[in-house]
């Protein structure tokens, strides 16, 4: 069951569409997030090459790893007609990569072997990693780095090489293949497959084999925290992703989706499910609306929109947009959080990430990420001329005219906060007597709605007439008038 804070917020957003002069019925298309429930358990940015040939197996392995938890495993019991292995996507200009000519590329990977053929007499019996750089279909340079096959089994070992790409055309294709030759046999694990240059120009995506289809990760700080793909709990399916950190260092944990196409000037519902335990708490850590404000003690989501071309650059618009979970309680069962936001006019893509900012502690499991286009179907006219919610952080404090007005029996009051702080919203009658306090407590910066059902503090319906509603926050008082008509 959703928490009350969420259900109120969802009702709040539905109200935003009434402001547009229509009564909406929600119509939602498909989820823009790929592998949103983390159930496709294959590594991102890598493809299997000749899997199954001659009984060969290509496995995204969790039985051993050089650095984190997973590796690229090749099991090959006998000779095959073709080599068998893992092939990367083109890394040359993917996202922030920009492979350049006139560079010395430092090549490296780690490998572990078990029961492999020894002292191969031809290249067909060798095991290793091949790096290939192309421009316009022309090979600019290649290098094959073989693993140690003087013995049948080795522990994790680092292998290195170097490849000079001469001045001229910049590479438009960089492909890496970790494989066993057609005559090679045994088992090999590959991990941390690198190709970098100084000055920097690129690095292979998912080089450490840690993220599944559709996903990337980012960690920073002294110990960087930890993340796991886990089957210990999930909202749906078998798996979720666990982010955890237990110290006070300025670490950061981010689990984020690849950007996928999105439309400009379009409303999207952004949501995810989360379960947490032993997290840092504060009475002021309420669930938030969309905000560009980074709170370094909070857990939640970040999303942003991307400019075209979304697969060949990392250009964000309008920048980081956060929404945070409730951290008033240190633990909670699975809870959904959702916001609605209108994409900027220069948006061509969108991505979503689960996030620990700098100082949160504890454990949080995330599952069922979603970004869905939301449209409204006109079925009737409602209160034209009311203000439109844009989802942007306000640049001033304001108390908006309630809607509808006149109203019967209830009405929604919107207010905007330039900065977070204590807020009080109270209803008064024409004699100045308080009727009901709707809000009293800490609220985050942004746009908020509160609904009044026309009752007093005792729950009794109040009579028709003129009423006043007052906002007090950060030393500011704003009062407006409304009419209850029966």
Tell me about this structure.
The radius of gyration is 28 Å and the shape is elongated. It contains one helix and 29 strands. The strands form six sheets. Strands 1, 13, 14, 17, 20 and 22 form a six-stranded antiparallel sheet that branches. The chain is mainly β and 486 residues long. The protein has one helix spanning 4-18; strands spanning 26-28, 46-49, 57-61, 71-76, 84-88, 103-114, 127-135, 138-146, 154-165, 173-180, 186-197, 215-220, 226-230, 240-245, 252-257, 260-261, 267-277, 299-306, 316-324, 332-342, 349-356, 362-376, 398-399, 411-417, 421-428, 434-443, 446-452, 465-473, 476-484. The protein has three domains: 4-39 and 215-376, Jelly Rolls (Sandwich); 46-197, Sandwich (Jelly Rolls), CATH 2.60.120; 398-484, Immunoglobulin-like (Sandwich), CATH 2.60.40.4070. 3% of the residues lie in helices and 46% in strands.
Taking Cα atoms only, what radius of gyration do you get, to the nearest Å? 28 Å
Question: What count of domains describes the coordinates?
Answer: 3
Structural class: mainly beta
H/E topology pattern: HEEEEEEEEEEEEEEEEEEEEEEEEEEEEE
**Main sheet: strands, sense, barrel:** 6 strands, antiparallel
Shape: elongated
Kindly report the name of the CATH homologous superfamily of the largest domain: Galactose-binding domain-like
CATH topology of the largest domain: Jelly Rolls
Q: Give the distance, in angstroms, between the N- and C-terminal Cα atoms.
A: 35 Å
Query: Which architecture of the largest domain does the CATH hierarchy give at level 2?
Result: Sandwich
Q: How many DSSP-defined strands?
A: 29
Q: Strand share of the residues?
A: over 45%
Helix percent band = under 10%
Number of discrete helical segments: 1
Contiguous runs where pLDDT drops below 50 for at least 5 residues: 1-29, 377-391
Average pLDDT, to the nearest integer?
88
What's the level 1 CATH class of the largest domain? Answer: Mainly Beta
